Prior knowledge:
119 residues; alpha+beta; HIT family, subunit A; 5-stranded antiparallel β-sheet; 5 strands; HIT-like_sf; HIT-like
Amino acid sequence: MAGEPQADCLFCKIVAGEVPATVVRETETIVAFRDINPQAPTHVLVIPKAHYPDVATLAAAEPQLAADVLREAGEVAHEDKVHGAGYRIVFNTGSGAGQTVFHAHAHLLGGRGLEWPPG
């Protein structure tokens, strides 16, 4: 069921404390942790604690929770001091877009120049 933890989900296991992660921020609704394969000096994943397979499903079911993810990504950017130079928030939705963990999550990237278009 959407919103419920999934036994086979890596990010649900991180939320539950079953898999270690370098957590940089946590609230009642989100967990933010460093990516294990960073693509920038700041590369933090911001995830809702509730399980939704992608950001579109999350936004349709719980728009306030989707807003929490975005707000907390901004807070992490401020804490990591990348907010002044600029940063990027990316949601990969579907395997064709590069999503490999099917639990909605934002990639916060900063600390270096970010070219456009990405990819």
